[in-house]
Fold:
Amino acid sequence: MYLNAELAKQNNAREEKWRELLTENSLTRDPNLLKKRLRKGVPQSLRIIVWPMLIRMDKHIQNKKFKYESLLQISSPYDREIGLDINRNNVEERPAIMRKSLSNVLHALSLAYPKIGYCQAMNTLVMRLL
Structure:
């Protein structure tokens, strides 16, 4: 019982430190403190807030180059391979809307990350995330 109470106390203290860091907007102001906090881990309850801030998600969203909708309007050199792989992975069991979503996500990824493009089996990973 004591161990659980002590762990809860430590987690609460760590979460409070992260909240202070977020309210002071110190994520970019004090890199050493941020590194120290990251090494100890981001509390589960704050990950949904912290991780998008760290990868500067707002900048990516504003950047039209990476807008999902606009990427769907451009043809990809990998469209043929994506179509072949989708049909190989037992997606017949899945609704057509799921197959279309999978195809769209893989298409957009192949354009957003041209150095990676598309490689076989990416569809298996993306299918699990959908």
The longest helix spans residues 2-23.
